[in-house]
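*** Query protein ***
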Amino acid sequence: MVATSTLPRARGLPLVGSVAHYLRDQLGFLEQTSRLGDVVTMRFIRQNAYLVNAPALIEQVLVKQPSGFVKDVFLRELKRVLGEGLLTSEGDFWKRQRRLIQPAFHRDRIAGYAKIMVDHTARRVATWRDGDVLDLHHEMMVLTADIVTHALFGSDPGDTAEVAWCVEKLMERFADPLYLLVPAIDRLPLPANRRMKEVAARLDKIVRGFIAKRRALGAEGPDDDLLAMLLAAQDEDGGRMTDQQVRDELLVLFLAGHETTALALSWTFHLLGSSPAVRTDLADELEQVLAGREPSLDDLPKLVVCERIIQESLRLYPPAWALGREAKEPIVIGDVTFEKGAWLWLVPWTLHRDPRWFPDPLAFRPERWADGLAKRLPKGAYLPFGAGPRVCIGNQFAMMESVLLLATIAQRFELEAVAGQRVIPEPSITLRFKHGLRMRARRRIPLA
């Protein structure tokens, strides 16, 4: 067995360890650290963290020995806002919630949302004009908020723009890595902390209002949206979710269906903006498969270029850019014994850019996913939705949405990079844009 004291160590300073290097450039620091070995020690003041960058070891943590870990301190901080939803809950409670919610994401269920996705996209894109310079990330955030709102609450839930605004403000707070490395700052009577509590209370009130309104409708309410399914779900003993549990799950589903999909599409169009050859392949496929009509669920198996583009975008810019686990007890992973309380960081950002698994890793090459690359990769080498029992419950929903939205938008417009713009990733809970993303829209075909 290998003791953690013998592992290679990341750059650090006396007393504070790697804190200063990490805060200066999170992604750059992790990239440098990953080159030191498959498991590297990082110290943040008095806390030991370990960057795990080998697929076989990641597979052990996420798939073979998940019960030996809990979610990391970062997601435990999120619990104060999101509550005990699937993203943050643990143990038997998480298992019960997963069983209750899983039927809502059955393939046949999510297939019914395909037309909603395309219709909302067509309406949003109808507001664009040839030559417009768009704040594309904002456009995608508005679009995916509309779609997830319809999926969660039905076609006429009332004004949910405030929900999106509250979630956006709360995510901005988690963009500061200092809050995550030193959670105690959150307890100080600072103006930013007071604002976060006010926004969280506002969000809680809105979502509870949706739940109360739907419960009051009883059997007369719609039964084809996710809120209705959550309210109707029951376990083997006939138990149902409380309003608190429904509220927590709604917030997690809203965040996942809104934030991460908007980011995935924004990064995709950023990559396409400087890849004319890939744009040509995409246009050829859309002309051949769709010939000017709207995409539908039945077209998904034929939109192979679209799917590969999304897969490659998720490789280079995974919205869920890092996963964290904390050891519940001393545990052996591979030949390394980790102490109780050790932080294990599994970082798709570095893993997906490892030349051992992805030759020419920084190049945007959707064609690399031809011939079944996803099945040939080592297990644990590609983690856009996590892995194991806690794999993202909405992964099929997200892939369907991403492909359909890409096809719907790309049929109408090409989106070009704006000269002189520096696009910088900002690692928060998700992989965001530090200064936004501006792109110029060029009309391809007239709108129907």
Residues 89-315+383-443 form a domain with the Cytochrome p450 fold (CATH 1.10.630.10).
